[in-house]
Amino acid sequence: MKKAGKGMLQAIEDLKSGNYLAFIKGVKHNKAFSEFTFIVDQKAYKNSLDAIANFGIGAAAMSYQALAGVSPEELKVTINIQDEGTGTIFDTIIYPDALNEMSGK
After folding, report:
1. Cα angle at 34 between 57 and 6, to 5 degrees?
2. Rounded CA gap, 20 and 15, in Å?
3. Any bridge partners for residue 40, and if so which?
4. pLDDT reported for residue 45
5. Per mean pLDDT, which range of 50-54, 68-72, 73-77 is the poorest?
6. Which of 9, 12, 37, 45 is the most exposed place for a label (fewest CB within 10 A)?
C-alpha cells in the first residue's frame, strides 16, 4: 500500500506540474484518495482536454481503493473542479458513475 500511495502522490504532483495540463493550478485530496479538488483556471479548463486529467486520477484512485480492500460496489471517487479566482466549485465528476454515463448505462 505504501508503494501505491506514493504512486498516487506522484500522479497528483504530475498533474500540478504538467505543462500539457497547465489549467490545473493545485490539487487537494483526502487520505483515502476518494475525494479530490482540482483548483483550475476556469476559462482554460473549459477549453481543454479536461477529461484526461479527470479520468486519469479517477482510474488511479479507484485502483488504489481496490488494493486497499474497498469492495467493487463501494468504489467511488469524487473530483470537484474549483475556480482558482473565485473559489467556486463549478463541476463535480463522480467515478464510476461518469464511466457509466459515457457508456450509456
Report:
1. 60
2. 9
3. 24, 83
4. 86
5. 50-54
6. 9
What span, in angstroms and rounded, lies between the C-alpha atoms of 82 and 72?
A: 28
Neighbours of 104 (CB within 10 A): 5
Query: Do 37 and 20 contact (CB within 8 A), yes or no?
Result: no
3-state SS, the chain, equals: CHHHHHHHHHHHHHHHHCHHHCCEEEEEECCCCCEEEEEECHHHHHCCCHHHHHHHHHHHHHHHHHHCCCCHHHCCEEEEEEECCCCCEEEEEEECHHHHHHCCC
Reported pTM = 0.87
Strands 77-83 and 35-40: parallel
Q: pLDDT (tens digit, 9 = 90+) per residue, 87-99?
A: 999 999 999 988 7
Rounded Cα–Cα distance for residues 82 and 88 (Å) = 5
At 87, list the grid cell.
Answer: 473559489
> What spatial distance separates the first Cα and last Cα of the chain, rounded to whole Å?
32
